[in-house]
Amino acid sequence: MESKGFQEKSGFPKFILIILVFQSIVTTLILLKDKESPWVVLYVTVPLILLFAFSFLRLRINQNNFEYSFFPFTFKTTKIPWNEIQEIQFVNTDPISDFGGWGVRLSKKYGKAFITGNNEIIFLQLKNGKKRSFTIKNKNKLIIFLEENKINYLK
After folding, report:
1. Residue 101 Rama label (left phi>0; alpha psi -120 to 50; beta)
2. d(Cα 45, Cα 66) in Å, to the nearest integer?
3. DSSP 3-state of 33
4. Is it the case that residue 3 has pLDDT exceeding 70?
5. N or C end: fewer C-beta atoms under 10 angstroms in the chain?
6. pLDDT band per the 50, 70, 90 thresholds, residue 1
7. Which residues, other chains included, contact 140 with Cβ-Cβ below 8 Å and sequence gap of 6+?
8. Cα dist. 32→10, 42, 81 in Å?
């Protein structure tokens, strides 16, 4: 019996938000002590805090397509049909050393990557030579979906 699909939604690590909030508070206090306006800090950090707080990567995987969107960096859902994917691989990575951080990143090894808080990624080598990588939270559920639907991946 084929399963209906796999869905997952993930966001940036919460410690980034904590660091930004802490940084804005400390900087504001320093500026107030020096009798300078703290508004410039708020103009910069509040949008960053909101960006990190409300960004999310959404994966929707079914028998026909691998679909993804990364709000607010991509406004439309991108669909990759399974017949355009040459190879699927699960890789344990480090967002800092492998991608230089979180967000939409470029890597020679992993191609265009959509990285949120987890170390586990699904790496897709497309038949047209392009590479795509996505953070995943629940590797085991995704593997079950792939095996139930007879979608090959490197073990």
Report:
1. left
2. 35
3. helix
4. no
5. N
6. very low
7. none
8. 37, 13, 55
pTM of the model: 0.81
The one-letter amino acid code at 113 reads A
Neighbour order of strands in the sheet with 78-81: 6-10, 56-61, 65-71, 78-81
> How far apart are the C-alpha atoms of 15 and 4, rounded to whole Å?
34
Which residue is it, tokens 């996505």? 134
Alpha carbon separation from 61 to 4, 97, 146 (Å, rounded) = 9, 28, 9
Look up residue 108 and give its two tokens: 């020679």
Q: Of 71, 69, 75, nearest to 132 (Cα)?
A: 69
Residues 147 and 47: their CA atoms lie apart, in Å, by: 42
